[in-house]
Amino acid sequence: MEITLKGDKEFDEIPSLKTKALRINLNENIYGTFAEIGAGQETVRHFFRAGGASGTIAKAMSAYDKDFSDAIYGIEDDGRYVTEARLRKMLTHEIDLIEERITRDKHPNKMFFSFANTVATIDFAKKYKGHGWVGIKYQIEPDQDYNEIILHLRFKENDARLQQETLGILGTNLIYGAFYKYDVPKKLLRYLYDHLDKDQIEIDTINFSGPVFKDVDNRLMSLQLVKNGMTDAVMFAPDGNNVLPARVLYKKNILALRGSFRPVTKVNIDMFEKSYDMFVKENKVDVENTQVVFEITLSNLRAEGEIDEQDFMDRAELLCSLGHTVLISNFQEYYKLVEYFSQYSKARMGLAMGVNNLVDIFDEKYYRHLSGGILEAFGKLFFKDLRVYLYPMENEDGTITNSENLKVHPRMKELYKFFKYNGKVVDITDYDRSILSIFSRTVLKAISDGKVGWESMLPKGVANIIKEKSLFGCESEEVIHKE
Fold first, then answer.
1. pLDDT tens digits, one per residue of 41-83
2. CATH architecture under which domain 247-435 falls
3. Summary count for the chain: helices (H), strands (E)
4. Gap between the Cα atoms of 18 and 257, Å rounded
5. Which of 68, 172, 379, 399 is the most buried (most CB within 10 A)?
6. Overall fold of domain 9-216
């Protein structure tokens, strides 16, 4: 029996929370459990209040006590409770119970679901606003494998009661979207903010899995989070999966490289390798606790005012293939990037950049929106435990520009000297001069024009990937696997 759940015209307008909950409740085939830990039972409350819940809610529970929670879901290796691993255990455990207790023979048309959250709301000192994991494991056909939507959120409100209410709204939106908007994941993502403001909650990680999401690229969904203003930055690992930035960056020494990486060239990799060698030799840097991040700003993903999503995927594919962690952000200015990292780590950080990037940092036009202007920005940037590793630039006449002879605006000259001679800017000296004339834009044009020779400008293996997958407009051709 086929059961259609897709949205219809009647529900194209943003429905109220009661309407959403009631529509779920009145679908006689939707049946599942709610397990909420850390902020009351705010989601299931909407379904109880809407009416008709007896045919939908199999069980609602909240195992607040840690020992009791461990007895139900098991003990986490790290001893923590507000984690993705905990959420997944909750979802799986509750689904297994439904399958065990409700026979398919008696209920052949039931589509089971388990909704769960594990969260920590704001602390009494109001220094830590709280965060949490929310997810749903569910079917849209009785005989189909389960689908999952799992997300991580950060609270922005300063009151625990308000955070609880916000969580309840988000949970209701998630359940409704999972059943009625699953066929358009990008829209489902936006609908999570129905009846919510982005000042209330931030979603910084989301992952879709299961048969109905088999064609969903979670890296692309990450991009949507930033594009829609739901978060400032998202991160994904070399394996292509979205990862929680806090988990990757927590208390780490961070070395970041910003670029267009369109495509990644030998210069980018030389800058990374040489700056990394310098960074890990710093007194306050632990090589075992160092995280390298390749960052792409949203402004660098735009083409004619719109984000070219395929272009994003091409760049991500190459960086991942080289084993790197990638951050997608909406930070135009470097000081915002450093502030973001500072949320997770107070350890020494490094920024590797080219001469033109450093000159731009000393351009006042980027800081006119700040009441303190460039001095405010520099206070946020350079007065943290930060060092800039400067990659040189070769000029047309063959001379080299580095930190000693670069030119900033005359008004910025003394400010630049202050930071330069206080050790905040250091030159990368052990660079490969033979590759300084390589630029991403030159490679990109050569690829699109069908010219030869661009392969030698890229790291080993990258040209093959570009050809195999026809990236950046490269026409498919037989690949020579020995570069």
1. 999 999 999 999 999 999 999 988 888 888 988 888 887 889 9
2. 3-Layer(aba) Sandwich (3.40)
3. 16, 18
4. 47
5. 172
6. Maf protein (3.90.950)
